[in-house]
Design goal:
The protein is built from 10 helices and 7 strands. It is of the alpha/beta class. Keywords: DNA-binding, Phosphoprotein.
C-alpha cells in the first residue's frame, strides 16, 4: 500500500484518531464478505458492534435513523450505486467521516475517481488481514491510502478540477441523482417520468436544477461530466 495526499484550497478536516473509531458501518451486498469483514474488525479493533448495510439506500436510511458512524467501509459496486456515486452520496451525509472504498477493481481511473470524490482511501479486497487492518488504522489516523503501484492518471490541477466536480454532484438531491443516472442511460424525459412515477413537468424542473448545480448547458454535457468522474460507471 502507498499513501496519496489529496490537496485542495482548504485545509483537510481533522480525522478521528484510530483509537476513537468505535462504530463502523460496512456497506456491502455480499453477505459472506460483509460478515467476514465485520468479524475481522471486531477482533482486530476490539469493537462490540459493527453496523452493516446491503445497499447505498439502506446505508442512508440507517445513518438517518441511528446517526453517523465513526468510519465507513464502502463496496465499489452496490445494487443501487456503481462507481463513485456511493462516495459522492455519502460525503453529503457524512462530511467529516473517513470513507474507505474497497474493491477487487484496481483500475487507476477508478481509484482516481474515488479519491477525487472524497474517499480517505481505496483498498483491495484481496489484502491479507494484517494489511487490511494496518491500512484502516492508518486511514483513521488521517493518511490517504491507495494500492501499491497506483499512479494517479491526472496532473494535480486536473485532480483538483475533478474533486471540485465531485463536490458539485454531491449537491444533487437523491431524486436528482436518480434522474441523472437515467439521463446517462439515454432515457428521454417521458421515460424518466414513467420509471420514477412522477410528472414529466417535474422531471424537467429537476433537470433544470441538475444543470444549474453541475454547471452544464446540455444533457450530453451532463453525461460527459458524470462519466469524467466515473459517477455511475465502474468498469
Amino acid at each position: 500500500m502507498t499513501t496519496a495526499t489529496v490537496q485542495g484550497n482548504a485545509s483537510p478536516a481533522p480525522r478521528p484518531n484510530a483509537d476513537r473509531v468505535r462504530e463502523i458501518l460496512i456497506v456491502d451486498d455480499h453477505p459472506l464478505m460483509c460478515d467476514a469483514l465485520a468479524l475481522t474488525l471486531k477482533i482486530s479493533f476490539g469493537l462490540k458492534n459493527v453496523r452493516t448495510a446491503r445497499s447505498l439506500g439502506a446505508a442512508i436510511e440507517q445513518i438517518r435513523a441511528q446517526g453517523a458512524p465513526d468510519a465507513v467501509i464502502l463496496d465499489l459496486n452496490l445494487p443501487d450505486a456503481r462507481g463513485a456515486e456511493g462516495i459522492v452520496t455519502l460525503r453529503r451525509q457524512l462530511p467529516e467521516v473517513p470513507i474507505t472504498m474497497i474493491s477487487a477493481d484496481l483500475e487507476a481511473a477508478m481509484i482516481s475517481a474515488a479519491m477525487a470524490a472524497g474517499a480517505q482511501g481505496y483498498i483491495s479486497k484481496s489484502l491479507s488481514r494484517e494489511a487490511l487492518v494496518d491500512s484502516l488504522r492508518r486511514m483513521w489516523e488521517g493518511e490517504f491510502i491507495t494500492p501499491e503501484g497506483y499512479e494517479p492518471e491526472q496532473a494535480q490541477a486536473e485532480d483538483e478540477a475533478r474533486a471540485e466536480l465531485a463536490r458539485r454532484f454531491a449537491t444533487l438531491t437523491p431524486q436528482q441523482m436518480k434522474i441523472l443516472r437515467l439521463i446517462c442511460l439515454g432515457k428521454a424525459n417521458k421515460e424518466i417520468s414513467y420509471d420514477l412515477s412522477i410528472a414529466e413537468a417535474t422531471v424537467k424542473t429537476h433537470i433544470t436544477a441538475i444543470m444549474s448545480k453541475i454547471n452544464a448547458r446540455r444533457r450530453t454535457q451532463a453525461v460527459l461530466l458524470a462519466n469524467s468522474i466515473r459517477l455511475f460507471e465502474a468498469g
